[in-house]
Write a structure and sequence with these properties.
Strand order of the largest sheet: 6-7-8-3-9-10-12-11
Distance between the termini: 29 Å
Strand content: 25-35%
Shape: globular
């Protein structure tokens, strides 16, 4: 089966000022040689601490930015080679659900205008049927169709996120990138949004790139999980092995992430995995980005990039000591 979305050795650099009085700019490596695939009707979870490059990867996948090197392909077509009309067609097939349901909706527009805008841009619906289509979109995400004349401030956070999901569905996309869609919501509302996304995936045969810091949620919604650290891929594995209690080989950074997940039983304590000298992270080197924090690192970790090691047919770890 051909992947729906494919990132092939993608890197992205940003150039920022070195200081107020220093005219020179230094390069910030947001993504470093990342390869990733999203299959049709698959949910790929993407995890990693803040600043590791998850949102940058999402922007490249949506062609909002161009990679410094490497290729981003959607349905076997490289996005950087598409002309204006082809990019417009691509945007119809790939949509995004944003993290903040409060700032992602225009407060001056009614829900009808918000949801009808993508329909008008892509000429998907005649004007006479527009209202019926908008009401159907609201109904598909569990909102009253009659609420389309209200404004965003009249809805709760969970309802606003449902509107954001409805907007993403308006163009009948094949891929939805969900960038931490539940982080700004209450726990009970999070469960509602997660269940909604999973139901829509089955009904409409959607693919998701699901970005989140909530590891149990990622395991629950995903088919596979990708772990990133400082712009590098460190592990790719099936979701059912991600939080598995038995003997499963993991990258040292993945182990740190899993140990940070709180236990629901207050009487139980986990033994914290404390990283080694984090001050070394300020030094530049050409090897594994996690080497300064890893207790198993040696000279080869600082000088050579780790190659992918197959633990299983669908489980890959980038580490010298696996």
């Amino acid at each position: 089966m051909q992947p729906l979305l494919r990132l092939d050795k993608v890197s992205k650099k940003y150039f920022i000022k070195a200081g107020f009085f220093n005219p020179k700019k230094r390069a910030l490596q947001a993504l470093d040689n990342v390869s990733l695939q999203v299959q049709p009707n698959e949910t790929l979870g993407l995890v990693g601490e803040s600043g590791c490059g998850k949102s940058t990867l999402a922007r490249l996948a949506l062609a909002l930015e161009s990679p410094s090197s490497g290729k981003v392909e959607f349905e076997q077509r490289e996005l950087s080679s598409l002309n204006k009309s082809a990019i417009k067609e691509f945007r119809k097939k790939a949509q995004m659900v944003f993290q903040d349901p409060y700032s992602s909706l225009n407060p001056k527009m009614t829900i009808f205008k918000i949801l009808s805008e993508p329909l008008k841009i892509h000429n998907l619906c005649p004007k006479s049927e527009m209202r019926h289509r908008v009401e159907a979109l609201l109904d598909s995400v569990g909102l009253e169709p009659q609420s389309c004349d209200r404004y965003p401030h009249e809805f709760s956070g969970g309802q606003r996120q449902r509107i954001g999901v409805a907007r993403a569905l308006a163009t009948n996309p094949k891929l939805i990138i969900a960038d931490e869609p539940t982080s700004a919501l209450d726990v009970s509302v999070q469960a509602q949004i997660i269940n909604l996304l999973m139901d829509l995936k089955e009904k409409k045969e959607l693919s998701f790139l699901f970005i989140s810091h909530d590891l149990p949620v990622v395991q629950f919604v995903s088919d596979r999980v990708a772990v990133m650290y400082k712009g590098q891929m460190v592990e790719l594995l099936p979701a059912d092995r991600f939080l598995y209690k038995g003997h499963v080989e993991h990258h040292p950074y993945t182990k740190m992430l899993l140990e940070a997940v709180p236990l629901p039983d207050p009487s139980k304590r986990r033994k914290a995995v404390v990283p080694t000298d984090e001050l070394k992270e300020s030094f530049e080197f050409s090897g594994c980005n996690f080497a300064p924090r890893c207790g198993n690192s040696n000279s080869i970790c600082f000088n050579e990039r780790p190659k992918p090691v197959k633990i299983d047919s669908d489980h890959i770890i980038w580490c010298h000591h696996i």
